[in-house]
Specification:
It is built from eight helices and nine strands. The protein is α+β, with helices and mostly antiparallel strands. The radius of gyration is 19 Å and the shape is globular.
Length: about 200
Amino acid sequence: MSNNTEYGPKADQFEDPSMIQQEVKKIIKGLHVTENDRDRIQVSSIGQFGNEVYESERKHRLTASTFGSVVKRRKHTPCHVLVRSVLKPTGCMTDAMEYGILREKVVKGIFEKTQNLPVADSGLWIDIHNSYLAASPDGLIGDDAIIEVKCLYSASKLPVTTSTIDEVIDLLRNKICLEKRDNKIQLKRNHNYYYQASIYHFV
C-alpha cells in the first residue's frame, strides 16, 4: 500500500482497487437495519450524546449534522478530517455545543407552552433504504413532525439590549445561520444547518 496525500499524511491506498470495494460493501452490509431495528435503535439511543447506543450506531454513518460538510467539500480539498469525523466521531463538545444542549430543554419547554404541542424525546433515526444515512432531531411532534433547536452561541454574546431577530441578523451578519430575504427570515441555503434540515426529509 502507498501513501495517499488526499486522505492525509498517514492514509494508505490499496494497490488493488477491488479491495476498497470489498471493504465498502462489507461496511454497508454491516450497517443494514430492518424497520424493527430502526425503531429499537431510535428508542434505545434517546439522550443522544453520552448514550452508548447512540455513539455506537453513529459510527460509519453519514449523519444529518455532517451532511453539509460533505456536500460543500471542494473536489481538491483533502478529506481525511471529514472521513475521520464520519468513521470515528469523537463526541467532543465545543463551547457552542455545550451552550446549545443546555438551552435546548428550555426552548422545547417554551415551544410546548406557546404552541400547546407536546414534544417527545428522539434518538437516532436510520434510513432503512440507505442505512449509511442517519439523523437525530431534537424532538418529535406527533407522528409526522419534528423540532430542531438551534441556540446560537454567537448571539449569546450580544448586548442584552439586542431584543429582536432582525437586530441579531444585522449585528452578526456572516456569523449567523439566518438571513432576511424578501422580508422573510430563513436559513441560509449554503449553511450546514440547511443541509441538516434537508436530510430530515429523507431519513
